[in-house]
Amino acid sequence: MKLLFIGDIVARPGRDLLRKHLKALAATLAVDLVIANGENAAGGNGITRDNANDIFAAGVDVITTGNHVWDKREALEFIVTEPRMIRPANYPDGTPGLGSFVALSRNGVKVGVINVMGRVFLNTLDDPFRAATREIARVKELGAQVIFVDVHAETTSEKVALGWYLDGQVAAVVGTHTHVQTADERILPGGTACLSDVGMTGPHDGVIGMDKTAVIARFVTGLPGRFEPATGDARLHGVTITTDPATGRATAIERVAVTEAQLQEITDRASAAAR
Ligand SMILES: [Fe+2]
Ligand SMILES: [Fe+2]
C-alpha cells in the first residue's frame, strides 16, 4: 500500500498542476491513496468550497490544512459537511470540523489521516503531541490499518520530536507549512517514516509561493504591504510512503520534486500508453 502526500497547494499555479497532471503522476507512481495539504489553495490564503471540489476532482482523497485553514470564512461551514477535509486536531474543543479522517484506499486499505499543528512560532493551540495520541485512538477505533500524520509546524525540532514520539504507532509523520522541502527522510526504528517538510506545490519563482517583490519590500522597509501569489516556475513537491498494512509500518519513503515540464512528460507518456 503506497500513498502520495502532496505539500501545500499554493494558489492557481498549484491547483492547475494537480488538475493537469495528478492522475498521470499517481498512476506512474502506482499510489493507492493521495493526500494533499490545501491550506493555501485560494490565492495563497485559505481554501474555498470550489477549491476543495477541484482538488478532490483532480484525484486527491483527503485534504489536510493548517494555520491558514479559516482565511476563507466559508471553510468554517463546508468543513462540517465535508469530512474528507480536516483541520489541525489540536484546535480547541468546539472548533468546526475534525482533526482526522479514515479513507479507503484503491486497494481496500483503511488509512487514518491525522492533522496537527505545532505551537512554536504559531498560534498556541492545545498540545499537538497529546492531540495526536487521541486521534490515533479515534482512527484505530474506526478500523485504520495504516496511519498518516501531517504535522503543520514552523520548526524542524518540533516535527522531528513528534516523529520520535509517535514512532511505532503510525506509518508516517510528515511536516508541512514551511513550503521548503527538506532532505531528511528516514524510517525510524519502530517503523515510522519521517520527513521534516514535504515542500510546496505551486509557484517557486517567489518567496514560499508569494510574489517576491512585495515580500522583499516588507523585509527591507518594515511597512505593511499586500502579498499576491507568485506565478512562475510551478513545481509539485510531495512524498510517497510505502507501508505494510499488516503491521502498519512504513517500508519506504521517497521524496517527489517535479517541475511542470517533468509533469508534462509524465502526462504525455501516460496518455501515449493509454492510446
Ligand atoms: Fe502552507
Ligand atoms: Fe501554514
Q: Can you give a write-up of this model?
A:
The chain has one domain (2-200, 233-274): Purple Acid Phosphatase, chain A, domain 2 (4-Layer Sandwich), CATH 3.60.21.10. The protein contains 7 helices and 12 strands. It has helices at 11-29, 49-57, 75-81, 128-141, 156-165, 212-221, 260-274; strands spanning 2-6, 33-37, 62-64, 100-104, 110-117, 146-152, 172-176, 186-187, 193-195, 202-203, 234-244, 249-259. The mean pLDDT is 97. Helix content is 31%, strand content 24%. Strand 2, helix 2 (49-57) and strand 3 form a beta-alpha-beta unit. With 275 residues, the protein is of the alpha/beta class. Strands 1, 2, 3, 10, 11 and 12 form a 6-stranded mixed sheet that branches. A 6-stranded mixed sheet has the order 4-5-6-7-9-8, covered by helices on one side. The protein is globular. Bound molecules: fe (ii) ion (2 copies). One fe (ii) ion is lined by residues 8, 39-40, 66, 177, 179.
Write the layout of secondary structure elements.
Blueprint: E1 2-6, H1 11-29, E2 33-37, H2 49-57, E3 62-64, H3 75-81, E4 100-104, E5 110-117, H4 128-141, E6 146-152, H5 156-165, E7 172-176, E8 186-187, E9 193-195, E10 202-203, H6 212-221, E11 234-244, E12 249-259, H7 260-274
Parallel strand pairs: 1-2, 2-3, 5-6, 6-7, 7-9
Antiparallel strand pairs: 1-11, 4-5, 8-9, 10-11, 11-12
Helix pairs in contact: 1-7
Bound molecules: fe (ii) ion (FE2) (2 copies).
